[in-house]
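During the reporting period the student researcher (J.K.) took over the structure-prediction task from the postdoctoral fellow and processed the backlog of single-chain submissions. One of the processed entries is reproduced below for the supervisory committee.
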Amino acid sequence: MPVAIITGGLSGIGLATSKMLAGRGVKLAAVSSRVGSSQYKKAENQIKSAAEKGNTNCICHAIDIRNPESVTQGLALIQETLGNVTILINAAGTYHHEALDNHSFEGWADTIAVNLTGPFLMTRACWPMMVSAKYGRIINIASTAAHRGMEEYAGYCSAKAGLIQLTQVTALEGAPHNITSNSISPSWVDTPMMKASLTNRARSRGVNVATLYSEARKDNPQSRIITADEIAHQITWLALDAPLALTGEDIMMTGGASW
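J.K. obtained the following structure tokens:
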């Protein structure tokens, strides 16, 4: 079985994917800066339980994906523990909600670091193992925000747009080595990050958060909010079952909306 790394692996899409891949018997490392915190102990236990049912090995390991040294050290430990990494899922994400005229540099820099620099550093670190294996699958979680700007999310929209370009460059450079690289651009997904984002927007607009959830459902022609498991199913297919020819693509998951 291949070895997978999932960044942001203890929450939202990352957690759903960690459990799904572990259930399929994939050896995996769920990576997060929050590993070991009491708030995420339940998530760690869920992943370990899924790995037991899938008869596979897993670890939860703390890596600061913004930091090259942390990435290098973390990957070395994961390789030693599980073997050569051949699947990389960049699911870690963050956002900063602030209008341009008052947008802090710190907020901008951190949003770019987590959503774009982190996937670059993780891809670069896993690359030699994939080239050596003559096999690799890289899946990046982008967003419809990469295709359509959103007021007060300058850093997030910019980073996700850049992530799609990183995906395409990686696909071109990976093609001679049987390494595929694809991104997924969901619209609103029911995750803790969505809840935090809409709560902040509701506060700034002076409206009830339920109003924004209703607007999010209306943006989807299916009149609902996408689940994290749905995205995890798509990631799992790309990681384990998709044809080699599918690479360099950004897959929109919007319930039919043309964003």
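The committee noted the following: The longest strand covers residues 179-186.
J.K. will present the remaining backlog at the next meeting.
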